[in-house]
């Protein structure tokens, strides 16, 4: 019998996570081109836009605001922010590179030097404090030119453009970045292709074919990125990144258990199986038959995918999902992004996201049992409304409670034998919400004085959770 691992091993990667389009701002500075988040409106209308049919990818300033354009101005304030991360004791900082900062249109042959130099400066600043960058190569953004001229990832041509992009990144930053991920929450394209796949569904009855064809192109691009990373930076680690929601059956009716299983296979395991096991799973082939999907592949695609699997599995965990086969509109809960029915055993956040720490232990066990590769939780957190008291303090005990219970669940999974290498809570500094385009949905240990109406002076303030998380890191998770 294998000896159980000690809880939170030495060298565990504590830190925090962000994305370029949600923190940087400077959307036209430094030669950057427009990308998909630049045309997504702020406010709760964003979620509707993400799920609507026929989104036009145009700016409509007469109707909408665009908070990502300024975000929290990390582009100009990164030194201040990194100093705060260092004060908390971060070992790693997860960030993404904006593709359109490096190739403004996406299809150029020569990269934008000003964009490359910006990330050089960010990485140098992180290393000054002995913080390792964990870099997502594409985090919910595609250069807008590639969307409009090529149809996003529906086009095979994006594979070559992405290969050029990652080749530049690996050669430029090979001495500065050890941890890479290819596509953020790649499986979310099943629900919101605008974010990850760079196109909008034009007709509901034409949803399946372009979505799975775009996935194939991303799988090929990801495998090529893995191959290039291993060639150019042999000591680096490169992973995939998925959204993971353990899926419970609403009751023990076998029909509901089978329905929940099929939902979980499609959403949780389809993309992981391709990127980790190196092949399309058997269950997806029946799904394709039933939806009339005929995948177009080129010679060598499947071999490339098979031979270039990822080194680790990164994933986001915010909630679980409960399902049953025959559900009515009244059964479906609106808060959980992926839907499902109400779980009577769980409470929910102010945005309706069900809170399930035990589900994280379940998720870690399920993923490790299936893949036997190192796991990295690169997103987890509580979006909430924070109040600044008259004395300037922000007492976010609710966030501390949320994170404490999830860290306990991580510890239990490690005791179960799961190989967990790190934890970067989402939105370690307040940022623009990806799903709702709001600042009021705050995740951070650091408060940013920016509001949904665009007001605020961008001042940074330490929340109560800042000092709590600092102690968690200092004690390697022993003091919660």
UniProtKB/TrEMBL annotation:
InterPro entries: GH, GH_1_N_CS, Glyco_hydro_1, Glyco_hydro_1_AS. The active site is at 379 (nucleophile). The keyword Plastid does not apply. GO terms for molecular function: beta-glucosidase activity. GO terms for cellular component: cytosol. Keywords: Glycosidase, Hydrolase. GO terms for biological process: carbohydrate catabolic process. Pfam families: Glyco_hydro_1. Belongs to the glycosyl hydrolase 1 family. This is 6-phospho-beta-glucosidase. It comes from Niallia nealsonii. The lineage of its organism: Bacteria, Bacillati, Bacillota, Bacilli, Bacillales.
């Amino acid at each position: 019998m294998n000896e159980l691992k000690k809880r939170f091993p030495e060298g565990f990667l504590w830190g925090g996570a962000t994305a370029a389009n949600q923190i940087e701002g400077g959307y036209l500075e430094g030669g950057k081109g427009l990308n998909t988040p630049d045309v997504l409106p702020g406010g709760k209308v964003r979620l509707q836009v993400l799920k609507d049919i026929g989104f036009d990818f145009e700016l409509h300033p007469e109707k909408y605001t665009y908070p990502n354009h300024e975000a929290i101005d990390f582009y100009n304030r990164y030194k201040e922010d990194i100093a705060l991360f260092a004060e908390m004791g971060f070992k790693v900082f997860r960030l993404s590179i904006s593709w359109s900062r490096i190739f403004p249109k996406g299809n150029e042959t020569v990269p934008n030097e000003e964009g490359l130099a910006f990330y050089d400066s960010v990485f140098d600043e992180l290393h000054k404090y002995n913080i390792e960058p964990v870099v997502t190569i594409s985090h919910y953004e595609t250069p807008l030119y590639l969307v409009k001229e090529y149809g996003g990832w529906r086009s095979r041509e994006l594979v070559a453009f992405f290969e050029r992009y990652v080749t530049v990144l690996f050669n430029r930053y090979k001495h500065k970045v050890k941890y890479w991920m290819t596509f953020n929450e790649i499986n979310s394209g099943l629900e919101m292709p605008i974010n990850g796949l760079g196109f909008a569904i034009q007709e509901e009855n034409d949803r399946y074919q372009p979505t799975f064809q775009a996935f194939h192109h991303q799988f090929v691009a990801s495998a090529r990125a893995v191959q290039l990373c291993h060639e150019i930076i042999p000591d680096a680690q490169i992973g995939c990144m998925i959204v993971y929601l353990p899926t419970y059956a609403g009751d023990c009716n076998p029909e509901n258990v089978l329905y929940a299983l099929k939902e979980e296979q499609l959403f949780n395991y389809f993309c992981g199986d391709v990127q980790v096991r190196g092949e399309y799973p058997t269950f997806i082939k029946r799904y394709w038959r039933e939806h009339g999907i005929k995948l177009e592949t080129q010679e060598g695609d499947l071999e490339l995918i098979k031979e270039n699997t990822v080194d680790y599995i990164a994933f986001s965990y915010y909630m679980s999902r409960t399902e049953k086969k025959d559900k009515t509109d009244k059964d479906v809960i609106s808060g959980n992004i992926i839907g499902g029915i109400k779980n009577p055993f769980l409470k929910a956040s102010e945005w309706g996201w069900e809170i399930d720490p035990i589900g994280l232990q379940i998720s870690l066990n399920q993923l490790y049992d299936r893949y036997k590769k190192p796991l990295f939780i690169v997103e987890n957190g509580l979006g909430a409304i924070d109040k600044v008291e008259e004395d300037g303090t922000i007492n976010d005990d609710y966030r501390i409670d949320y994170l404490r219970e999830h860290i306990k669940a991580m510890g239990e999974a490690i005791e179960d034998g799961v190989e967990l290498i790190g934890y970067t809570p989402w939105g370690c500094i307040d940022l623009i919400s990806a799903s709702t385009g709001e600042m009021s949905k705050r995740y951070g240990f650091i408060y940013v004085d920016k509001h949904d109406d665009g007001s605020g002076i961008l001042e940074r303030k330490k929340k109560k959770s800042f000092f709590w998380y600092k102690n968690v890191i200092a004690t390697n998770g022993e003091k919660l």
